[in-house]
């Protein structure tokens, strides 16, 4: 299958491109992706997307985005990349008569805002509380409408927080969820800025890759007009993370976690959703981890 | 108060401008509005909105839109007027340092799609099933985000179907709800294309005007981050419409209604919402009719 991946050099994009390497891949990102056997292009997302469609890819996986913090700090850039570039892609597709690719879009649980029920159902209302979440919600609406009109066969996948993120600790408010596992697992210290009773919604990078490869093989018609799906995940507390770490790496690893409360981060995290039913996605065969032991195992393999 | 009304020559805009004539009004529409004492401008909504803000209106009432049928027939035009022009207005406001007008936006119950509960709650999910509804939902999301960021003080008012619409019968799928009252009231025949058990959600033109004048006087901060409100209305069946007509104008008026089923219209109407709690709006003092006798009385005065 001819597949175009936008945002192919990111954390998920790189793994996804490897998982799909048997296909005819075109990989695009701001920084040049690098995968043998694939067409790799460095390209700004604001550039005209029409040339990317010249080969009429049967599937397009759209992962490219400005992250939440940057979309909040740079209002215009967030809308330009997270909304306008997605719409330009949809318009470039619509301009090609008879072309109707499968389009998988990486959306986010940031489309939802407080107050939340204990477990968020599939039909919870869209109440983004950030510009990033607003841009994702608007793009979801476009994808449903372009699908209904027959221009694409689309699906928006609302990803849980990805854990354990690889790489060095970053300053994202959600970074500590990964840091307190990844760093102690290699003997390095990490800071926990919130209560260990804090609950959140997780999936491993491998699960995220699995969501997209699974969706590629699905008949999306089964989702009818509602083309945005809450992906499955693991609802767990920080204490459960730490217990899993203790089982895998012992008390000496746990002792590397320094509790240092940060009121700013605690306040941000308090506004995040922490559990979903993900009924429709599970029924369609999407799967994620069911324990932090599995999430740690996914990181270590 | 300095008030700018966009779409001021439409059914609601004209009445609203009259109701607000004690204020310092600027009235804008594609066709030149006509009201003594007001600044009246004929202007395409796709034109640069910046000049309209030169006088820094304290309130902007945005009623201008391509209607549902046209947005469905002309995909590009619907997005250009119903989404892009609204966003251009928001961006023009954002470009003026320190300016934060009250912005009231005429949204629609078309942001909701089937399946519906018997009565739609305020937090029902956004599931538009038309391009028009998608464009309204996207603009609502923008208005909430621009409000949260402090660029405007916004509110989206989701209007019920307006009944009794003045003027000649039109071909809108919802037209018959008005036609079967307005025409027999003046001795003319009308066609009823659906079962009389069909239920829908109504408010008079006078109520719609009242929603906006009431919102003008409200502290919108009370609505927090959720800046889209289902307006109150009357949930009633066609049979209840006809009974009210009989009470007001007698059996001879009812006899002017010819039942002529139209499967296309019946199918469209079956997908429309027919009852809302409108709890938040009612609590904030928004009011609508509670019987079709009142809706007919509003038409006759």
Task: Describe this protein's structure.
2 copies of one chain form a homodimer. With 301 residues, chain A is of the alpha/beta class. Chain A folds into 2 domains: 2-160 and 203-230, Rossmann fold, CATH 3.40.50; 175-201 and 234-273 and 289-300, UDP-galactose 4-epimerase, domain 1 (Alpha-Beta Complex). Chain A is built from 11 helices and 12 strands. In chain A, the strands form 3 sheets. In chain A, strands 3-2-1-4-5-6-10 form a 7-stranded parallel β-sheet, with helices on both faces. The longest helix of chain A is centred in the first third of the chain and has 20 residues, at 75-94. At the A-B interface, helix 4 of A face helix 4 of B.
What is the subunit arrangement here? homodimer
The total tally of domains of chain A equals: 2
Integer average pLDDT of chain A: 96
> What shape does the CA trace of chain A take?
globular
Give the strand line-up of the largest sheet of chain A. 3-2-1-4-5-6-10
- What is the strand tally of chain A? 12
So how many helices of chain A? Answer: 11
């Amino acid at each position: 299958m001819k597949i175009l991946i936008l945002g192919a050099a990111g954390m998920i994009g790189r793994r996804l491109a490897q998982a799909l390497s048997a296909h005819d891949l075109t990989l695009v990102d701001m920084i040049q992706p690098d995968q043998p056997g694939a067409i790799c292009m460095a390209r700004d997302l604001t550039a005209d997307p029409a040339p990317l469609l010249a080969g009429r890819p049967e599937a397009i996986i759209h992962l490219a985005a400005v992250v939440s913090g940057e979309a909040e700090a740079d209002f215009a850039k967030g809308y330009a990349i997270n909304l306008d570039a997605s719409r330009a892609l949809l318009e470039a597709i619509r301009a090609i008569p008879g072309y109707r690719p499968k389009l998988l879009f990486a959306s986010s649980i940031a489309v939802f805002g407080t107050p939340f029920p204990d477990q968020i159902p599939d039909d919870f209302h869209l109440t983004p509380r950030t510009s990033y979440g607003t841009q994702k919600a608007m793009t979801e609406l476009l994808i449903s409408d372009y699908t209904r009109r027959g221009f694409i066969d689309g699906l928006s996948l609302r990803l849980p927080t990805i854990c354990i993120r690889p790489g060095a600790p970053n300053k994202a408010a959600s970074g500590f969820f990964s840091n307190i596992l990844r760093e102690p697992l290699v003997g390095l210290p990490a800071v926990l800025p919130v209560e260990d009773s804090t609950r959140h919604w997780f999936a491993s990078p491998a699960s995220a890759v699995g969501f997209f490869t699974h969706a590629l093989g699905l008949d999306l018609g089964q989702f009818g007009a509602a083309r945005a799906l809450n992906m499955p995940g693991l609802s767990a507390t920080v204490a459960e993370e730490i217990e899993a770490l203790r089982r895998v790496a012992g008390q000496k690893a746990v002792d590397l976690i320094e509790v240092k409360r940060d009121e700013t981060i605690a306040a941000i995290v308090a506004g995040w959703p922490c559990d979903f039913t993900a009924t429709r996605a599970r029924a369609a065969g999407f799967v994620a981890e069911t324990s932090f032991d599995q999430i740690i195992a996914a990181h270590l393999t």
